[in-house]
Amino acid sequence: xxxxxxxxxxxxxxxxxxxxxxxxxxxxxxxxxxxxxxxxxxxxxxxxxxxxxxxxxxxxxxxxxxxxxxxxxxxxxxxxxxxxxxxxxxxxxxxxxxxxxxxxxxxxxxxxxxxxxxxxxxxxxxxxxxxxxxxxxxxxxxxxxxxxxxxxxxxxxxxxxxxxxxxxxxxxxxxxxxxxxxxxxxxxxxxxxxxxxxxxxxxxxxxxxxxxxxxxxxxxxxxxxxxxxxxxxxxxxxxxxxxxxxxxxxxxxxxxxxxxxxxxxxxxxxxxxxxxxxxxxxxxxxxxxxxxxxxxxxxxxxxxxxxxxxxxxxxxxxxxxxxxxxxxxxxxxxxxxxxxxxxxxxxxxxxxxxxxxxxxxxxxxxxxxxxxxxxxxxxxxxxxx
Length: 385
Hints:
The protein has helices at 21-27, 29-38, 63-72, 80-89, 91-99, 115-124, 186-206, 229-232, 235-247, 271-275, 277-283, 299-309, 315-326, 344-347, 355-358, 373-378, and strands at 10-16, 49-52, 103-109, 152-154, 180-181, 184-185, 213-220, 257-262, 288-292. The chain is α/β, with parallel strands linked by helices. Strands 2-9-8-1-7-3-4 form a seven-stranded mixed beta sheet, sandwiched between helices. A two-stranded antiparallel sheet has the order 5-6. Strand 5 and strand 6 form a beta hairpin. It is globular.
């Protein structure tokens, strides 16, 4: 038996910064076609499914307001109490605390000081004097500070003076389009590193170490610019990566393994966002796709997953789902009325906590007037922030 119900899943998270669901379909046609081929279709060899949460929506405007709730269950506003909570509640720490050396935890970020900087702030608890993007101090060094719950932390290896932080949004020497190191695109370096890391983990597992699990995130900044051209350049590379996972490593054929392809929010720069209601709407609808065996384990959870995938969900719900997938208990302090995608209330309309009864506004989803439901409240053509 490869997967026991009391074991966590092996999880790869591929996070595409600033990519909406529709942007993914437009700019990554090869990758999206690969996913469409496997939606509700079981191949004779790999037998995996693709399930998308089409109504997933934002909590706040940009990364800090959406990624922190996804991985830690709470919003990070850079004060000490929230930093202390995130240091305890983030999924890497919870997984490491429960499984110890049986769980291999890792992150690689294709940027200078963004994703892991958030965790470094909360882990080192040096909030007043933190090295963060908010304090305008760049983390350019390499592996950075000690993250007790992270076995492999590469948050600045793909950093270059030509594209660091928000400077990458603009033209000239700091344009994000100059995303090459040693004549290769940054996304190729990140995907190659990810493949290397997962390959060695799986080799260890094929050698008989079935008690080893892993939780990995790869973070990509290619969507974080206004021309929408840089993201399109990684389509072939991402497609090949997924195909190699499928064919070479047979990653998806193992029910223990799961891949999450997601974004924190849609694009929020350039003329499409600035000058159109559609662009503003797309920013509120980030990509969220699970690839592998179904995340549900019984018929009721299957029904809940089906209903939730067609309903409004947000980062709090995703955090609860990741905790369920990893078999860890989330701290009571982070409860913001989240419901895991496979929670029973989704499937039972008569349940008192069924979210379809109460989720009729951004406020009801603990969002700062920034979710997709806000368009219904204000009118699609009205003023949308």
